[in-house]
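Annex B. Sample input.
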Amino acid sequence: MPSTHTESEVDVLIVGAGPSGLMLATWLSKINIKTRIIDKRGTKVFTGQADGVQVLTQGRIERFMIDAMYGFNGLTVDRAILPTSLSVSPDLAESHPITITLRHLSEEEATPTQVGAVPNGIFRSNVLADDEADAHAAASGTVGMEETVKAKYVVGCDGARSWVRKQLGITLDGDSADVYWGVLDVLVKTDFPDIRLKCTNRSSITPETIIAKAQAIMAPYKLEVPFVDWWTVYEVGQRLSATVTDERERVFIAGFNLGWKLAGVLKGQLSSKVLGTYQTERHKVAQELIDADYKLSRLFSGKGPQRFESHQVVSVGDARPWHIADRFVADGRFRVVIFAGDVRETSQMSLLGKVASYLDSPQGPLRIYTPSGADIDSVFEIITVISNPRTLVEPNAFPDILWPAKGQYGIRDYEKIYADDDTYLSGHGHIYEKLGIDPKLGCLVVVRPDQHVAMVCRVEEFVKLGAFFDAIMLKPVA
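Annex B, continued. Sample output.
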């Protein structure tokens, strides 16, 4: 029996510290949401697992997110912890309606089962220096301890055999082929000319038979495998769950666009209705990924979901070139990008002035949804991109709201206005041309915190911005 039992509260509990869980945790820690992330493994995975991503690349991505989480608000992964029960109270008026029980595992329980003659789990002898802390992450003295966590939301990022998904009673629907792939991460000696290119090899269940099949495929070229770092076998299949959340929209299966929505709801900025869109969007993207995987498993081709397409622009204030998406910091804010067209034209500059006046008015979303006393760009950031050369217009010609005075000293923000123009060293970005925007008339684009396009309209339809945000935003509490 456990020697102790503890209780705690958290806004969001993430189950699973793979790439999906770490990305979500990074998002939430950046926006300072009270978050906890747990994983049943005693450590992160230090060797490749035939992910389709280079081993060092995968490790560095995860290292970056782990470091970022800690840097943002001290969040770390709690390892060697297994969830054992989950329930959601029917009374959603409770501040933390989800109850989840966790058990702290021993080192033996938290180490992946070794299958076959070749080890296929964690190797602690080749840990990089900056990963040493992760190799001993399971806290001593807590083995066998049980704890109860009360949460506002739970997100399952625990893989294809998700424990969270099973607690919700969600099944995976789809097909599996009578085809098995043997996969290895290995060091090889070969005279095959294109060995560094990606390739696949469908085979049997042991490393020896996989290697034998690879040698047969590559004949008459030679292939020697002096060291096998990891191997597995899996059945090719594409399955999709009918839903990704419980009926109360409190427990979710992880996806690409959930973090900013949870953060907005928890901060009281977004209506909880926004969470209902996660099902629709996630299901669509999951189907696209399955379609891509179907092609990938046969043709090594596939197309991912589309985002706001970034191209180079030039700061009107200091002539510095930027990729516009580099200005979209992952901080939970919406961006309204005003492609203002050619503001040398009096009519176009006048129209831009009307947009700015609306945004700065009591009826505009900036004034309605920005908390009193906060910087005017703390909820929405307005980015303006003109199509004419930057040297033909001065920042002072633009309305104040488009480059607002901020902070303690009321300093103007010069990083709000850009031109689609040539640069001294980086050439021309041609963002209007590449996005198919009329360089004379422009358009308005709403970009979500996850850099997906939420709305596009003509510049003269600027009142649609208010209607869009009224449908999803909550007014700040006085």
